[in-house]
């Protein structure tokens, strides 16, 4: 096993950034498995960077690594946060920094593992939105525009999120175009930032180096576990079926609550809201508006032990709703995979992140026994050894630095594009728009649209003749 005493020990005469390894990738690609396997080669400790796995509960649904499969490797920030608390990227950053410092002080290697890319961005980048708000709370700008700030604090407390979003749209259309109209937290943050500083959030953020590699807090080695999309899709479907057998239905049964808030805490996890319609129908209930409690019928109440049996039962209404929920969970997980892949491409193309890819496709297919160690573990170990003993990783990136610099200079993260042929889908920034236009779905819709227009032209010509 590698000795890290010389590689990651601070030297006052030659200060260097602390070295950390970051394992990234889409859901199901094998990030956690790789991180645990690395412990056979390096004295590592794992820091979880999955925004749902940090919470207590839903161990099956959030795919937490069971204790017996952790192989004695220390895991931090795993299942420790109350499920009703909002654990922000700033909370993660502040917690992870302390853990990293402690791990390094014991001559061990921190390995950050997870698919929540904005957690990782917050950790390695010096600029964070919440920090800016706090700094402005302490400055004199707050006093000089106190009346204006109170006005926006009052407005942002309004229950109607649409009102605040429209206000933001009037103040800063570019910033409003970058966020979802129901993202009340970010809407309030943007309004608060404008109230405190008088600066437009879009103008302020465009001048920042947030996410840029030249401003990283740590010396990072990024290992990205990747697999072909169709293989990941198949694996996701199989994994959801395994989760059903492992007790997923019991977990969503226990967390179910009428009129629950799905924008905070653990209930944001994919797989909770998907079962809401089914559980609402499955539980024969009355609702007491005064106590906000569900009153279950004693005669027709079905215990959660019967949930899985519904899949084999003749109870058509319940069975159909349950299958719809399971299929919705599979579909939304596949969408998450695509979002994560797009985000990794953006981090590399727009921010210049030096991502080193290892391919787990063969391993997920199960074509050969040695595909995982040969194609995933061994290349990752070689990469990390190079990283620890040299100033720079020797494995080349997919995008040359010169090309990446040109892209960074020309990046456009704020302009909103609307694609009418794709159902008025909103794309944010020039990069997303260009990637969308190259996509297979968009090209098929454009071809179909052109054919339909030509068909109408031909019909009109026939009618005239």
In short:
With 465 residues, the protein is an alpha/beta fold.
Strand composition percent: 5-15%
Catalogue the unreliable spans.
135-158, 286-301, 393-411
Strand runs, count: 10
Distance between the termini: 84 Å
Could you state the order of secondary-structure elements as H and E? EHEEHEHHHHHHHHEHHHEEHEHHHEEHH
Apparent shape = globular
Class based on secondary structure composition and strand pairing: alpha/beta
**Whole-number mean pLDDT:** 80
- How is the biggest beta sheet arranged? 6 strands, parallel
Q: Can you count the helices?
A: 19
What order do the strands of the largest sheet run in, or round the barrel if closed? Answer: 3-2-4-1-5-8
Proportion of helical residues: 40-55%
* Rg from Cα: 25 Å
GO molecular function: ATP binding; tRNA dimethylallyltransferase activity
GO biological process, one term: tRNA modification
InterPro entries: Dimethylallyltransferase, IPT, P-loop_NTPase
Organism: Aquilegia coerulea (Rocky mountain columbine)
